[in-house]
Amino acid sequence: MRRVVKLIGVGAAVVCLALAAGNVGPVGIAQQGYQEVRCPPTQPFTVCTLSGHTSVVTSVAFSPDGKLLASGAQDNTVKLWEVASGQEVRTLSGHTSYVRSVAFSPDGRLLASGALDQTIKLWEVASGSLVRTLSGPTNIVFSVAFSPDGQLLASDSCGRTDRSGRCIQGEIKLWEVSSGREVRTLSGHTRGVWSVAFSPNGQLLASGANDRNIKLWEVTSGQEVRSLAGHRINLIVSVIFSPDGRLLASGSADQTIKLWYVGDLVGR
To answer: N or C: which end of the chain has fewer CB within 10 A?
Structure first.
């Protein structure tokens, strides 16, 4: 297994990262010189601010067509925003604790939200109605992700704790979206899992945990196919595949991003 490159220069824990389709170079982040504008921003160093949540915003996701933005926050709500105008479309209420992750289905019709109340909720985007609640996790849900074909939803959590309440077994659950049925549980991490991501072809699932490890799983069988170690600090906060599936990026509390070559697993 080759680790292709390590990106440094981040001054705090990396909590979210993304690779843009069609871009092979790094993405720069402007840190000063911002100008507030009406939404959407169209020039460099301009910012559109969406206000409405009453507590910390923990997760954001664009709809597949780019017309909507979803946000989850510590006010227990999910909000949908119209990107073209910056206007709030609706608020989705139902979680009883912090919302930690939001994700659109590939067709944009559903939105999944995972929260500290140990549930995952599926919402109909067009109406805002609650489709179903998945209540299989036994601990905080940090991340949710749809498979590329939209048939499966992955969620992560802690499967088992010791007497002090410390997580000693992380787990990932795969759900059938159409029925809400739990398909299988993937176990192997020795601490809580914080992030999950499907490969573009849907054959692999990546998971990052608080045990310093990134694991790759075969979706159809649930078997672990590889474990990647290299970050200096236990907590792996975010993982994501490149658009061609040959690279995996991981962000950690050690203030670095690592790029791993996983092309030998593509199409296996």
So the answer is: C
Tokens standing for residue 208: 């990052």
DSSP assignment letter at 246:
S
Q: What angle do CA 243, 193, 107 make, to 5 degrees?
A: 40
Q: How far apart are CA 48 and CA 45, in angstroms?
A: 10
Mean pLDDT calculated for residue range 78-107: 96
Distance CA 19, CA 29 (A): 13
| Residue 28 placed within a domain | no
Angle at 233 between CA 75 and CA 259, to 5 degrees: 90
Q: How far apart are CA 204 and CA 196, in angstroms?
A: 11
Q: Per the domain annotation, does 30 fall within a domain? A: no
| Neighbour tally for 54: CB within 10 Å | 10
The label of the residue with tokens 């998971």 reads 207
What does pTM read for this prediction? 0.84
